[in-house]
Write a structure and sequence with these properties.
seven-stranded mixed beta sheet; 28 helices; globular; 42% helix; alpha+beta
């Protein structure tokens, strides 16, 4: 029997490891695994609810396959070669000082060898697999790519090889080379560590096994170099050059054969390495490597440089002509510019009476309402409550008013939680769940007091758009998530809209659509509580068996997720459409989506973000979408529609002839619906996309030149004018309804102008418009849709560009004086968008001028309109008056605001009072007498200024003094009238009458 004294005791100072650390590690692992599960499972639920589970399944499966293959290739190659190097280590190592030093390292490394030889390949394989997963789209395209139907001009290979196959093949070659290099480094180090490789000392420097092993790895690396050289022969067709993109004369006649020679030399050197492995002579591969280096310098570098310098540079215009022509033709094909119709436009700069008579449709449709300025006005007059809001930049669409298509500025009344006063989890996620309705105003007219002429307004909505589902659960500014739905019979708790006649002053509702995954079960509650970091999801009584959770609510983001293979436009626009031809409409968001590539042979490469940047994108908060850095091919292949009520996403094939789209439709069958399913009402609200237009106009600054010799000189290149209101930023394109010269019918178009490519002169050289109207026939696009008309102005006629016109506006004496008057008394003048129209045989510029208060309640009202034609300038309260001023008293056509006049009874007969309830009691209108007094005072001030100048010129000081007195009196009258209009009572105003200030909702 042993005693306690005989039991072994632990060494002094030794500490027994407790279970705490392993337990914490296990718990941490479980938490991390659960969070990963929560993310992946909730993603699956979201895609499944939308009906796009095939997309996420295919993406995950493709990524998983690529990860496994790359992991096995990298990890397996490293694991096998490390073990081969270790297994073939020499049994006896000569005793040298170097080996004695290595013995110490071998002894220290031996306890870790198994971990390193196993863990190293696993870690390397993990990183390789992670990198390979990013190639899932290229892999799918390479294995499923459809034939393009046309070949490149050099090799005669179908373009599908360049767009679909070549990018993935280049990745494979680069990946194998990287694997071979990493493996070779690890293998050589292992041979050195265990004595198979001895760079110094006497005797055998390398064992036979190490020699064969190293030589084979070197042969693989050189073979991959040869493959890269060979693939360069095809990639060279997409080179980015200094003057034009694609292979040049030197590329075709010097670089191309040089690549073939270098590839052959590399293959020869790879065979020499194999020979060395067998025969043991390192001299031949050493000579071969030197030959590769010399060949790379002479054949790959010096020879093309000599050809460029001696042959091409002295004769560049003629020698490069063939390849420039290839570039021009490929660019037109790749960017859809083959529909460009170039016309000579002999622009007249002299305004004559009746000049606009033949352009009556265009004149009547000129948009006065600037969607980039009037958002505060919409907000002030139609926001209704602080928890609603409108986007800073509104949208332009067209709707029927009295049977006629009218340009319309439209906005969705979105939910804005920042305006809510009681921010709690219950309010933020279960009560305030949606916006309500749309607000629309005619674009070509305004009320007598400068406010928008609303054609759809109020809560509930009333107007010309008819009945539609007004609840907006999905919009760009929606909350990150909302929980909606409740068991039948439960009193509704979602705030629908305010109503004084309802209990508690508001109407409540319960979401009844299918808008998000079910969240009622405990497991789903747990997952979503983890995903959104909100324990309230687990314990709230409002999360029931009938509840749904709505997230990813930005329409652009929804489309980007269900179609990750498409490039989406950063902005979206709303439309009220009749979905089922039953008279009941719905609000939808339209998102334009593109197929893009950067591998189209000879096409001009563009930096996408730079091409689509203008003064609006600089200020507007667009959805954060992933954009390809460069492109040389783009198609508006898909129109995506997101239902604002239930969030359903529908993708329509807009360009079914696009080979890239055809391939994706084969990969994801049924995900993209045919165009034939687009009904007529939805078709009438689709339009030509802005980003595509911006890319095309950027190209046409140079590619309007189609002659190779002229293109080479670059003497006729244009540029996009800067926005007159924002220096060094391109002017945005504008949607307008107009008839181009020679066209009988006005069409909804997207327009832009060009000026001479000079920093000093702002002279108009061209005007571009695309027919943005697809028609209203179900499933059929109008044949004129997408037709680009490019007007080239005479080079010997100086037509002012937007910058010159803005300068003329700012320096015009009458306009400047009146604008100075308008900007006094606590007001601010805001110039609107400067529109360019090719009408009247020349070029007409129109700019609305808004005025808003500098303090207190601020919202811009349209007060004046500036017009220019040649050097003639008009400035009046209405566009119609301003046009008549320019065209000798009679423009020959009526503008959309021709009938706008102050009503004698002090109301304009149709202006909303700002309450947003759809009624119209006139309480928010500007008194007509105040407006009339302001108009009269401004007219008197203008006349007094003219009289002062005339008297000053004649040195008639008496007349000058009288004119100055009249000017002072007129300014005082104008300031008083403006104060009354803006709601700020003048000092001597009666205190028992409150100032007329629009309700702020």
């Amino acid at each position: 029997m042993s005693s306690a004294a005989s039991r072994p005791t632990a060494p002094t100072g030794a500490r027994r490891r407790g279970p705490l650390l392993p337990t914490l590690l296990v718990i941490a692992g479980i938490v991390v695994a659960f969070l990963i599960l929560a993310r992946f499972w909730t993603e699956w639920l979201w895609f499944e609810q939308l009906g796009f589970s095939q997309v996420i399944r295919t993406e995950w499966l493709s990524r998983a396959i690529l990860f496994v293959i790359a992991f096995l290739v990298m990890g397996g190659a490293l694991w096998i070669n490390l073990r081969l190097a270790y297994r073939n280590r020499p049994m006896y190592v000569p005793t040298t000082p170097q080996q004695q030093d290595l013995d110490r390292y071998r002894e220290a490394f031996e306890p870790l060898r198994r971990v390193v030889f196993t863990g190293g390949p696993i870690v390397a394989g993990f990183f390789a697999g992670s990198a390979a997963t990013a190639q899932w789209q290229n892999a799918l395209l390479a294995f499923n790519g459809n034939a393009w139907g046309s070949a490149d001009p050099q090799h005669g290979i179908d373009l599908s090889f360049y767009v679909f196959v070549l990018p993935f093949v280049r990745f494979i070659v680069s990946f194998l080379m990287t694997t071979a290099i990493i493996t070779a480094i690890a293998t050589i180090f292992t041979h050195y560590l265990y004595g198979a490789l001895q760079p110094a000392g006497n005797g055998e420097r390398i064992t036979r096994a190490a020699r064969i092993h190293t030589a084979v790895l070197a042969a693989v690396i050189v073979a991959m170099i040869a493959a890269n050289y060979w693939l360069d022969r095809y990639s060279i067709l997409s080179n980015q050059g200094d003057r034009f993109d694609g292979a040049s004369f030197t590329d075709i006649n010097a670089v191309l054969p040089a690549k073939a020679i270098l590839a052959a030399v590399a293959v020869f050197v790879a065979l020499l390495f194999v020979w060395t492995g067998v025969r043991g002579n390192w001299r031949l591969p050493a000579v071969g490597v030197a030959l590769m280096v010399v060949s790379g310098i002479l054949v790959g570098g010096a020879y093309p440089a000599i050809v460029q310098s001696v042959r091409v540079n002295p004769n560049a215009q003629s020698l490069e002509a063939e390849y420039i022509q290839r570039n021009i033709e490929a660019t037109y094909d790749a960017y859809g510019l083959d529909s460009v119709e170039v016309e000579r436009y002999e622009a007249n700069t002299v305004a004559e009476a009746g000049a606009l008579r033949e352009d009556a449709d265009s004149t009547a449709s000129i948009r006065l309402l600037d969607p980039n300025i009037v958002s505060p006005t919409f907000r002030q007059l139609q926001q209704n409550r602080q928890y609603y809001d409108f986007r800073e930049t509104l949208s332009v669409d067209r709707y029927d008013v009295d049977g006629q298509s009218t340009d319309t500025v439209i906005a969705v009344r979105e939910l804005n939680l920042e305006g809510s006063q009681e921010r709690t989890w219950v309010n933020d996620h279960t009560v305030f769940t949606h916006g309500f309705g749309v607000v629309a105003a005619q674009g070509n007219t305004i009320s007598s007091d400068g406010r928008p002429e609303f054609m759809e307004r109020g809560i509930p909505s009333t107007g010309v758009l008819g009945e539609y589902e007004p609840r907006i659960y999905f919009s760009p500014n929606s909350p990150d998530y909302s929980i909606v739905g409740a068991p039948e019979g439960t009193p509704p708790w979602e705030l629908d809209y305010p109503d004084d006649a309802a209990p508690n002053g508001q109407v409540n509702t319960t979401f009844s659509g299918d808008g998000g995954p079910a969240i009622g079960g405990f497991f789903n509650k747990l997952l979503y509580a983890a995903r959104f970091g909100s324990e309230q999801i687990l314990f709230s009584d409002r999360v029931t068996d009938e509840s749904q959770i709505l997230y990813y609510r930005d329409p652009v983001e929804r489309v980007s997720r269900v179609a990750p293979f498409l490039t989406t436009e950063g902005s979206t626009y709303p439309a009220v459409v009749d979905a089922n031809d039953d008279g009941m409409g719905e609000v939808v968001w339209v998102v334009d989506a593109y197929t893009t590539s950067n591998e189209y042979p000879y096409s001009a490469r563009q930096e996408l973000e730079s091409a689509i940047t203008d003064s609006l994108t600089e200020s507007e908060q667009l959805a954060a979408v992933a954009l390809p850095e460069y492109i040389n091919y783009i198609r508006n292949s898909v129109k995506a529609v997101v239902n604002a009520y239930d969030g359903s996403v529908t993708l329509y094939a807009w360009d079914p002839e696009d080979p890239v789209l055809q391939t994706w439709m084969d990969i994801f069958p049924g995900s993209i619906r045919p165009m034939e399913e687009i009904n007529g009402d939805l078709m009438s609200h689709l339009r030509y996309p802005e980003d595509l237009f911006k890319v095309q106009r950027e190209l046409l600054t140079e590619y309007h030149v189609t002659d190779a010799a002229t293109f080479y000189t670059g003497g006729d290149f244009w540029r996009i004018p800067d926005d007159p209101a924002q220096a060094d930023v391109p002017q945005p394109p504008y949607y307008l309804t107009l008839a181009m010269p020679g066209q009988e019918q006005a069409n909804f178009s997207l327009t832009s102008s060009f000026i001479i490519d000079s920093d000093e002169r702002n002279v108009l050289t061209g005007f571009m418009a695309v027919n943005a109207e697809p028609g209203e026939t179900a499933g059929e696009i109008s044949e004129d849709y997408g037709t680009i008309t490019l007007l080239e102005l005479p080079r010997d006629v100086t037509v002012p560009g937007p910058g010159q016109v803005q300068n003329n506006f700012d320096s015009d004496t009458a306009a400047a004086n009146e604008l100075n008057i308008l900007s006094r008394g606590g007001s601010q003048v805001l110039p609107g968008n400067l529109l360019t129209l090719p009408v009247g045989g020349g070029v007409l510029y129109v700019q609305p001028v808004y005025v808003q208060s500098t303090g207190g309640t601020q919202f811009p009202l349209l007060r004046r309109v500036l017009v220019a034609f040649g050097d003639e300038i008009g400035f009046a309260q209405t566009l119609d008056e301003a046009l008549d001023q320019v065209f000798e008293g009679d423009s020959g056509a009526n503008a959309g605001d021709a009938e706008v006049e102050p009503e004698p009874d002090g109301t304009d007969g149709g202006t909303d009072d700002g309450s947003g309830d759809g009624t119209d009691d006139g309480s928010g209108d500007i008194p007509a007498d105040a407006q009339q007094r302001l108009n009269a005072a401004l007219a008197e001030a203008g006349q007094a200024i003219e009289d002062s100048n005339a008297a000053l010129a004649n040195s008639d000081w008496t007349a000058y003094g009288e004119a100055q007195d009249r000017l002072q009196a007129a300014l005082e009258d104008a300031i008083a009238a403006e104060a009354e209009i803006s709601g700020e009572a003048p000092a001597d105003a009666p205190t028992d009458e409150p100032a007329d200030e629009p309700a702020d909702g």
